[in-house]
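User: Some background: our group keeps a shared notebook of sequences we're curious about, and every so often someone picks one and asks for a predicted structure to add to the entry. Today it's my turn. The entry only has the sequence so far, pasted here. Could you supply the structure so I can complete it?
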Amino acid sequence: MRASQAKTLLFTGKNDAFFDEHPDHKCLLCCVDDTDDLEGESSTGAVAEAIAETFIECGALIVLGITRHQLLLSGEVAYTSHNSSMCFMALVPQTAITVCKEWAVQLIESMSVETADPGLCIAALPLGWDPVRGELKIPEGDDPLRHEIDQLVSFGKKAKVEVCYKQEAYAIAGQIEWVDLSEHGGGGEGVIGALAGVGLRLFGDDGRLRGKWDLKKLYGQDFPDECVPVMEFVDHLARQVIGSVQVLDAQGDLVPDDVMVFLSDQAKPVMKNGALTFVVDVRDGLAYPCTKVDLEAIGNTDGWNRYCDRFEFDTDAEERGGDQMKRCGNCLYRRWTSKGFDCVVGLR
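Assistant: Of course. Here's the predicted structure to add to the notebook entry:
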């Protein structure tokens, strides 16, 4: 089995009565972190995508897509340029769980660069999942399970604002029978981000989806127009994905059903309330889905348009946001910090 790194995983199944038709499937979360270096040919996103594709080849369905979770940016934390982990949720046939885990280990070990500290976390949720509402079905009164999930979510939130350590990650994972946490090279610090990413995906209110979404192409001949009403837009996508869909404005409010959505070819959805969420800019009654650059610009007045003769494009096109401008936001040598970014050319 060989996974292609070129394919972006977007729509992979239907919502309608999924578990009625697939009673043998189990919900797994898979997260990878710290697999690359500054000039490596691969990236953490590419590793996660390759693993997700092997899951699909084993009969799994990917829920919504791969999410990127931003963790703490601090001089006390070792990271390449972004300090982000990549996580996805998959509905996997129980007979394929073992082989999926084996392939995940093989891929993270074969695709990670020698200088990396890769970590892998696979959580096989011991509970149901509502693919329409995008939420976990925790049985009433199952306090131990609720506590375990709360532990993971709390650790994910903490890793966004505080320095965390391997020992703490292993201590939490060791208390939860359905969580497998492992390191695969270097110092293994990637286990911190891998566990945090699982917690943040369970949280359902963090991260953006990997890849740019060509909405016009996804609609195809069913919607030949350039714009469709929000209600039609949401209903159409919800019939194609496993998971819920919503449209919000930049203030976090739901956009009215009758507002027209422009079918952009550069849309960048995020995770919000456990749903695939399109943040839009409503101008003159028309909702324009945000691109990656638009999302980064929200609340940022400084901009990232400075460039120099040392400029080189990031090796991961996903992290360039799809545009070809020679600006710091697209450069291989920028390193994100809590205040924006630093140029690492002077540190080389």
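Suggested note for the entry: Residues 143-161 form the longest helix (19 residues). The chain has a mean pLDDT of 77.
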